[in-house]
C-alpha cells in the first residue's frame, strides 16, 4: 500500500482534507470520550491520529499498546493542539503487530537503557543522533571524494599492530596469534603506492582498560594517507576536512542541531586556520613536565575557552610510535594531535611517516616488534618509498563534539566499552 512519510504532512506537502496513509509505531496513546488519540512515529517524524468510535479499527486503536506497529488511513487536518500542527482523522486503523508492554518507561537507569539499547534506539534522542552521524559521515566522504581521494578497505584481522601491544585484542587464528586491527594505517601506506591519496572508514579495536567518556573498545576510524604530503600538508588537510564537515552540517542540518541544543554559529566559526601549539607550549600551559602526556583535565585546560579545534604539534619522539618521522632536531616527532574545543578532547592523531628503511627498522627493533610480521610493511620502504603522511579520526569523538554529547557511547548505536559487549 502506498504511504506518505509523516514529515511530508508536517511540512505542508499534503493538502488539508486529502486522504493519506501513514505507517509507523505507536509513540503515545490515550483514549477519551469515544476517541483514541494515537501519536505515531515513523523514521521522519511524529504525528497524532484521532480515531473516532465508528472508524474502522477503533477497538484496536483503543487496545494497542505503545510501540505496536500500525498503518493508518485518514484525512489531514490542521490542528494547533496536535504535535507538529497537523492531525490525521482516521478512517481505517490497522495493527500490523500488537506490541507487548514496552519495557522502557520514564526515568530509567543508564545501565538499564544500555541493556535495552536495541529498543532505546527508537527514542527521539538516539534516532536524531543516528541521523546526525549519517550526515557527518556523508560530509567526510564527500570531502575526500572532492579532493580526489580513493576510499579503500583494509583487513580487520591482522598480525601487524601499530599502536602498542597493550591495547591489542588478540585472537586464535587457526593456531596462530592474530589481532583485531587497531588502525588501518600500515595498509593505507601500501595503498598509496597504487592510488597516491586514500582513505578508510572502518572499525578499529582497542583493549582500553580505561573507563572514560571518550574511550570505546570498538570505534569507527576514518584514516587518510597521502603520498608526498609532509606534516604541514597533513595538518592543512585535517583543518579543511573538519571545517567542511562542521560547516556543511551547520548549514544543512539545522533541524538536527536544534534537537542537540546546538546553534549553527557554534559550528560555522570552525574554519581554517586552527591554532597550532608546540608540545612544549602545551605542557607549560597545563603545568606538566617534559615527557608527560595530556590527560582529560589537561585537554580541558587547553581548549575550554576555544571555539575552534587546536593542534598540538611535535611531541617528544619517545612518546610516539615507530612509524612517525622525526624532525631535523632529532628530538621531536613530525606529528600533531587535534583537540576539539570546549574540552571534548583529542579527535585526530596524525603524522609524517618514517619513509627510510634503515631508520624505520631501528625504531621497530627498539619497540621490540616481531619483525617477521612486518616484512610486508618493510617492503614498502624497499620498493619505491616516498615521503608521506596521514592521520586517523575517531568518528564517535567527532560526533560527540559536534553534537555536544556528554559521553562517547551516545555517538554510536551499540557501544562497546570495557564492561559491555551486549546487546
Ligand atoms: O591516535 P591514534 O591511536 O592514531 C592511530 O591509530 C593512527 N595509526 C592513525 C593514523 O594515522 N592513520 O588514534 C586516532 C584517533 C584518535 O585521535 C581518536 O579520535 C580515535 O582514533 N581513538 C579512539 N576513539 C574512541 N575510542 C578509543 N579507544 C580510541 N582510541 C583512539
Strand content: 25-35%
Total DSSP helices: 14
What gross morphology would you assign? Answer: elongated
Task: Sketch the major β-sheet.
Answer: 8 strands, mixed
CATH H-level superfamily of the largest domain: Bira Bifunctional Protein, Domain 2
Query: How many extended strands?
Result: 16
Identify the strand order in the major beta sheet.
6-10-11-16-15-14-13-12
Order of helices and strands: HEEEHEEHHHEEEEHEEHHHEHHEEEHHEH
What is the CA–CA distance across the termini? 33 Å
* Residue share in helix: 25-40%
Estimate nothing, just give the exact number of structural domains. 2
Q: What structural class do helix, strand and pairing data support?
A: alpha+beta
- Unreliable segments of 5+ consecutive residues: none
- pLDDT averaged over residues: 97
The CATH architecture of the largest domain comes to 2-Layer Sandwich
Would you give the CATH topology of the largest domain? Answer: BirA Bifunctional Protein, domain 2
Report the radius of gyration as a whole number of Å.
Answer: 26 Å
In the CATH scheme, the class of the largest domain would be: Alpha Beta
What does this structure look like?
There is one protein chain. The chain has an 8-stranded mixed beta sheet with strand order 6-10-11-16-15-14-13-12. The protein is about 30% helix and about 25% strand. Helix 5 packs across helix 7 (about 230-250). It contains 14 helices and 16 strands. The protein is elongated. The chain folds into 2 domains: about 5-95, Nucleic acid-binding proteins (OB fold (Dihydrolipoamide Acetyltransferase, E2P), Beta Barrel); about 115-410, BirA Bifunctional Protein, domain 2 (2-Layer Sandwich). It starts with 5 loop residues before the first helix and ends in a 21-residue tail after the last helix. By secondary structure, the protein is of the alpha+beta class. 4-amino-1,4-dioxobutan-2-aminium adenosine-5'-monophosphate binds near residues 216, 223, 348 and 394.
